[in-house]
Amino acid sequence: MAFPKALQNIRVVDFSWVRAGPWATRWLGALGAEIVKIEWPETERGRLPSSTTPQGMETNLNTSGNFNDTNVNKKSITLNVRSPKGLEIAKRLISVSDIVIENFSSRVLQKWGLGYEELCKVKPDIVYVSMSGYGHTGRDHAFTTFGPVAQAVSGLTWQSGLPDAPPAGWGWSYMDDTGGMYGAMCALTGLYHRNMTGKGQHIDQSQMVSSVPLNGPALLDFTVNGRGTRRPGFPPGNRAHWPGTPLVDNYRGPTVAPHNAYRASPGGYNDWCTIVCHSDAEWRALEALMGLPQDPRFATASGRLAHQEDLDTLIESWTSTLGKYDIAERCQAAGIRALPVQSAEDRVENDPQLRHRGMYLPMTHPALGTHKVQNAPFKMSATPATNTLPSPMIGQHTRDIVEGLLGYSHNDLRAGYDDGTFWPVKRPRFSYQEEMLQ
Amino acid sequence: MTCPLAGLRVLELANETGHFCGKLLGDLGADVVKIEPPGGEPCRGIGPFLDDVPHPDRGLPFWYYNTSKRGITLNLQTEDGRALFRRLAAGADIVLETFRPGYLASLGLDHESLRAENPGLIVCALTPFGQTGPWRDYLSSDLSHMAAGGEMASCGYDEADVPNAPPIAPGGGNAWHMGGHYAYMAIAAALVYRTMSGEGQLIDVSIHEACALTTESAIANYIYRGETLLRQTGRHHAPAPTARTQFRAKDGIYVTALISGGLNPRNVRSLADLMDRYGMAGDLKDPKYQDPAVIAENAARIIDGLLASFIASLPAEEVYRAGQGAGFTWGAVRAPEDLLKDEHLHDRGFWKTVEHPELGRSFVYPGEAAIFNGSPWSISRRAPLTGEHNLEIFVEELGLSRAELSVLRENGAI
């Protein structure tokens, strides 16, 4: 049965690059919008450098695995927007589109002659989402970010790690993923508002600023109680509270023990299992599961917190004899919150829940071949969000867009290749580009 | 200017796993009515509390995640409670619920029957694992999601910094944020679809899947190259060790100082110019460092020697601002409380003063993630007190008499 798409007949002009912006438009595409990704090979960032090209395959603009996963559901046109002719074509595209989205530094689109006021002249109700590092207003708008910098400056990095050690931070660009989410959320919200009122707008999203509200309870503890986080025992690693330090809530949920990651058998790099008990009953169930007599020191929440080191040693002496999935299954069967630490391989190959839900489904890409691609973490009954296109090869859809959508002639297309509008004149072309010029 | 979601009515039946999504809807202008069990949602009991005095109306996480909502109490285990809920659902646009799968159905309030009475209704069930599958009924916590979702496998320490360190779950409750973001996205898409079709729908969101999606390239590294990634102190996971990017400044605060594009001649020149302003360039101004081969030979000394010493000589904020001024994407590793001094955030009107009239006080709250120039995203009110709007909703809106309200209370329905 063919389902409709939530964003059918919506077109997005996508100037975004690297990761955060493309992660936003990936989802708009899964929801059914036509995503027209505007690229230029000389300034491209996201396809290259690639550290995810399969071993034995040539690394080029079309063989990054991570680019593929980040850019499914899109079409690609190569266009030199810095040339007057390219700019004119971009405007023609915008005039038949609903959303413009980009994640450049704060003044780039304006310098190209595509600031919000210009966009409005071309398409009065355009929804324009800028996803810059620091936003388009404020004294530091020219500062630049990557995920790790937004995470550092906003306080996210600081909240990850063991006390009295350097911050462990986040081992990836969490704020590229999450900045991307905010880009998509803003675009959808702006689109809903447009549909209801007929009015577009400029939405000024910032990767750095979007990080700050993710620290809400810690910020309120400071603005309300005057308590900062530069204090003994913070951050408390995987625990809810660090033994021997003042008993204060640490913003992850209730202050309980056990609340930790424990070594599992056979002791490999990712052989760990987390266990959390939110109540005396959950603890008693764990104690029974471990085959231990009831220990009066651990009978109460405060007792377990006071004797957390002994408690954790005891639990780990049990977990280290069992595999991480075995621990989780036994615990869950007894009503105890336990889940294994999962590597990427674990998630793709060993997680029965993700398999059941169809999280990783194969798609075929013309250069990369057939590989699993990540899917939406939600099921929509009327308008499922599904991956419909593999990531585009660079400029793969230039002819479709220029001739099919915008109504230029085939001679115009050829002329644009000759004068450097659609591809740098001296740069070798891919075979599919030669074919589209036939 | 009206808020982007003005005119929408949301019924929120959410605990700590889902109230962030309701906050997003509320701060963006929807009329969110939070429905709690009599006595209040148990997550009101999570601290820290105002002045460290535990009370259901004083929990700061509850305050933060429940702005721009009104609150009523309703006991869905009573027939009166269910009847009132059905009346509310008949007039609602969105129901957001975080009950364990099957719970509402067991009360006769299954998603389909709610929608049968109100075809435009969007029902979003936001749960740890979704409505189906072998882990559907598993119990979880933020920590367990960070484990199974893959966050922990990517976060931790270099062996030199913390020997035998466990994988680390970043704090702050981000599993709930990840689920909330995707839930919001799905709801917003359903709203757009409804503007064209008039139809609502059911949305089944899995927090586990949201977390599993939020580890950047880790999945691609495995799928395309079969790689397992190493955890490294304060920087990206990687298949093999990479140069450190986190350095301790003079004030003991760390700085994230990554060199975008690596140590190429242009970056080395900029770095030398920046450090030279502080007399800390060492021999880096020597033209020989414009030769990539010489740079490569000296890379470890440039990073671990010169750059680390430069950063150690200045306060972190100064390194951050000087680095950004010189075109480097650097940042100070700030604690959340340091953000109150950030002038850029003040310029953007980020901080919001929220009144708590019952206390006769107002407090500063973090504001919105983005500026909507045509329809504001902004906190409209503090979190509701327990049952604060019972009179407003049940009497003024649904038309019950005060006497009926009293009877409902006496019988444990509200």
Binned, the helix content of chain B reads 25-40%
- Sketch the topology of chain B as an H/E string, one letter per element: EHEHEHEHHEHHHEHHEEHHHEHEEEHH
Number of strands of chain B: 12
Query: Which two protein chains have the largest interface (Cβ within 8 Å of the partner's Cβ), and how many residues from each?
Result: A-B, 159 and 156 residues
What's the CATH architecture name of the largest domain in chain B? 3-Layer(aba) Sandwich
- Sheet with the most strands, sense and barrel status of chain A: 6 strands, parallel
Please state the structural category of chain A: alpha/beta
Percent range for β-strand residues of chain B: 5-15%
Name of the CATH class of the largest domain in chain A: Alpha Beta
Indicate the multimeric state.
Answer: heterodimer
The total tally of domains of chain A equals: 2
Low-confidence stretches of chain A: none
How many domains is the backbone of chain B divided into? 2
The main β sheet of chain B shows up as: 6 strands, parallel
Looking at this protein, list some descriptive labels.
heterodimer, A: 438 residues, alpha/beta, Rossmann fold, formyl-coa transferase, domain 3, 2 domains, 6-stranded parallel sheet, 3-stranded antiparallel sheet, 18 helices, B: 414 residues, 16 helices, 12 strands, 37% helix
Please tell me about this protein's structure.
The complex is a heterodimer of chains A (438) and B (414). With 438 residues, chain A is an alpha/beta fold. Chain A is 37% helix and 14% strand. In chain A, strand 1 (11-14), helix 1 (20-30) and strand 2 (34-39) form a beta-alpha-beta unit. Chain A is elongated, with a radius of gyration of 26 Å. The two termini of chain A are 38 Å apart. Chain B has helices at 19-27, 60-65, 79-90, 103-106, 111-117, 142-148, 151-154, 174-197, 207-212, 218-225, 265-276, 292-312, 316-325, 343-347, 390-397, 402-410; strands at 9-13, 31-36, 69-73, 94-97, 122-127, 201-206, 246-248, 254-257, 330-332, 352-356, 361-365, 370-372. The mean pLDDT of chain B is 97. In chain B, helix 1 (19-27) packs across helix 8 (174-197). A six-stranded parallel β-sheet of chain B has the order 3-2-1-4-5-6, with helices on both faces. In chain B, strands 7-8-9 form a three-stranded antiparallel β-sheet, with helices on one face. In chain B, strands 10-11 form a two-stranded antiparallel sheet. Chain B is of the alpha/beta class. Classes of the chains: A alpha/beta (438), B alpha/beta (414). At the A-B interface, helix 2, helix 6, helix 7, strand 6 and helix 9 of A face helix 2, helix 6, helix 7, helix 8 and strand 6 of B. Strand 12 (378-380) of chain A pairs antiparallel with strand 6 (201-206) of chain B.
